[in-house]
Q: What sequence folds into this?
């Protein structure tokens, strides 16, 4: 089970850090990621991180501004978001999979587990 938190209202140019805590499984055995969904739009891949924190992968729209990380000892996934823009406004979901392949990281249906989402609102 995944539980996301840390969303809120921030002005453009500001920062937020999202967290996602996991329970009920071996956290270190999962590839983890973040998706987001803006009102009226499809879910969009944001970032992913492999089991050993190697090979973080980012969507082009957030690369250089967002950083994904994980603490396996705390069973927690993070997303540090800097230089936020109004177009980053969305509900952010954490995701997990034990066996996802690299070519499917940006495909929502490829992920086995989804958190409930946390709302990020960026005002201009």
A:
């Amino acid at each position: 089970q995944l539980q996301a938190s840390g969303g809120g209202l921030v002005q453009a140019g500001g920062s937020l850090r999202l967290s996602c805590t996991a329970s009920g499984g071996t956290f270190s055995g999962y590839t983890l990621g973040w998706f987001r969904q803006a009102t009226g739009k499809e879910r969009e891949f944001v970032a992913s991180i492999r089991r050993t924190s190697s090979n973080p992968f980012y969507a082009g729209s957030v690369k250089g501004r967002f950083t994904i990380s994980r603490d396996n000892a705390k069973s927690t996934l993070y997303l540090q978001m800097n230089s936020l823009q109004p177009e980053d406004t969305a509900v952010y979901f954490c995701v997990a999979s034990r066996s996802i392949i690299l070519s499917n990281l940006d495909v929502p249906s490829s992920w086995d587990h989804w958190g409930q989402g946390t709302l990020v609102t960026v005002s201009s």
